[in-house]
């Protein structure tokens, strides 16, 4: 496990920002002067229980359990503190009750618990996140080719600013390129243990936003930044190991899967229809989750199949990280801690129940004769499946579900 050493000395005129990602997928933050760092990390900063029920548009969806009554404390994870620029530092927070107990709605803790259950069964995981975003405002006359050299060169100042800021923040970016759509870019973050990987994803969005500001632009992570543009996702890569041996290669199953590796894929596929409310639950997510948009719109898996909901990336000389899966029907409106917790719990359940993965799909899913179901069947169906799911209940608990 990588631990980022907190800066040994922070100038007293510095600003320290601590953030959570709320159940609706929105990062929310408190900030203190550096002189209050001890209080932030030990006692925490106050937050209303309404933080549990903010919607993406900042309306409040009060429930019987969560209203204006009560208080929470945000405690900064000091070991994860990162510099953003001179005089500005950031770290993730955990959410606590006033008596110090961890709040049942802390998404970072939900992921830590899911990881602990996985590890208690003898498995370890690494997660790598992709970040797609669109730079705004766009010039209508700006030439753009998907993955184009010219597109990258025309925004080289932004890309260099992004890499400088990532280096300052100790964020390891493995790849950065112009994407399919006008003004669209994608970066890939180095794989880490799941909790650190989710922290890095939040940090990456901060770094991108700051680099865009440096260039006089705004970065949008929306599944659909502007009508008519390409959609943006937040694919998650996952590898699993048991006793030092990978589960997704070296076996006798399809494309080298071990029995446990196939069961993990089967568990994720079985659970995916009930996870959409967290992984991609916004109205704009529905615009992205359509066939032909490389969003994993149909429930299937396949080797290097970029239209499948789960893509297997094989172990070979062109893949230094070894075999892993890419879960595609995820976008930036989801909470990365909860998304990862749900996927780990689904994989663990698949292994525990010795599920058998369906046959891999080696053609574009739209060309398959197997009648592969669409993942997104409307908000009502999505919420109903979410409420019924035992995987969701095991991973999140009643309060986060509410």
Please give a structural write-up:
Helix 6 packs antiparallel against helix 8. The mean pLDDT is 94. The strands form two sheets. Strands 7, 8, 9, 10, 11, 12, 13, 14 and 15 form a nine-stranded mixed β-sheet that branches. Strands 1, 2, 3, 4, 5 and 6 form a six-stranded mixed β-sheet that branches. Helices cover 31% and strands 23% of the residues. It is built from ten helices and 15 strands. Strand 11 and strand 12 form a beta hairpin. The longest helix is centred in the middle third of the chain and has 21 residues. The protein is of the alpha+beta class and 402 residues long.
Average residue-wise pLDDT:
94
Fraction in helix:
25-40%
The biggest beta sheet, please? 9 strands, mixed
Low-confidence stretches: none
- How much β-strand is present in the residues? 15-25%
Order of helices and strands: EEHEEEEHEHHEEHEEEHHEEEHHH
Instruction: Please report the total strand number as a whole number.
Output: 15
Total helical segments: 10
Distance between the termini: 32 Å
The Cα radius of gyration reads: 21 Å
General form: globular
Class from helix and strand fractions: alpha+beta
């Amino acid at each position: 496990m990588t631990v980022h050493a907190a800066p040994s000395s922070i100038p007293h005129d510095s600003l320290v920002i601590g953030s959570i990602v709320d159940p609706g997928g929105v990062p929310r933050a408190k900030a203190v002067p550096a002189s209050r760092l001890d209080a932030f990390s030990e006692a925490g900063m106050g937050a209303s229980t309404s933080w549990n029920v903010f919607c993406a548009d900042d309306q409040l969806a009060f429930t019987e359990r969560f209203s204006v009554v009560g208080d929470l404390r945000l405690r900064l994870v000091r070991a994860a503190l990162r510099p953003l620029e001179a005089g500005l530092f950031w770290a993730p927070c955990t959410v606590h009750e006033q008596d110090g107990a961890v709040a049942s709605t802390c998404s970072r803790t939900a992921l830590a618990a899911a990881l602990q259950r996985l590890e208690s069964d003898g498995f370890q995981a690494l997660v790598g996140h992709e970040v797609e975003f669109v730079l705004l405002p766009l010039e209508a006359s700006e030439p753009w080719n998907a993955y184009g050299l010219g597109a990258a060169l025309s925004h080289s100042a932004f890309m260099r600013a992004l890499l400088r800021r990532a280096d300052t923040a100790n964020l390891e970016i493995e790849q950065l390129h112009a994407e399919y759509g006008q003004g669209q870019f994608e970066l890939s973050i180095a794989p880490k243990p799941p909790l650190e990987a989710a922290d890095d994803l939040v940090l990456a969005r901060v770094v991108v936003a700051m680099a865009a500001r440096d260039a006089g632009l705004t970065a949008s992570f929306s599944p659909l930044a502007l009508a008519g543009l390409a959609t943006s996702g937040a694919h998650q890569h996952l590898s699993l190991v048991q006793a030092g041996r990978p589960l997704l290669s070296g076996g006798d199953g399809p494309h080298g899967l071990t029995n446990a590796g196939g069961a993990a894929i089967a568990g994720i596929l079985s659970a995916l229809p009930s996870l959409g409310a967290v992984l991609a639950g916004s109205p704009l997510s529905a615009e992205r989750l359509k066939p032909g948009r490389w969003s994993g719109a149909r429930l299937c898996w396949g080797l290097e199949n970029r239209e499948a909901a789960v893509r297997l990336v094989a172990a070979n000389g062109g893949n230094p990280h070894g075999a892993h899966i890419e879960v595609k029907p995820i976008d930036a409106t989801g909470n990365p801690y909860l998304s990862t917790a749900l996927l780990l719990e689904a994989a663990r359940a698949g292994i525990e129940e010795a599920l058998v993965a369906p046959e891999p799909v080696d053609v574009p899913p739209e060309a398959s004769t197997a009648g592969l179901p669409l993942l997104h069947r409307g908000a009502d169906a999505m919420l109903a499946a979410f409420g019924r799911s035992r995987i969701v209940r095991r991973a999140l608990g009643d309060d986060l579900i509410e």
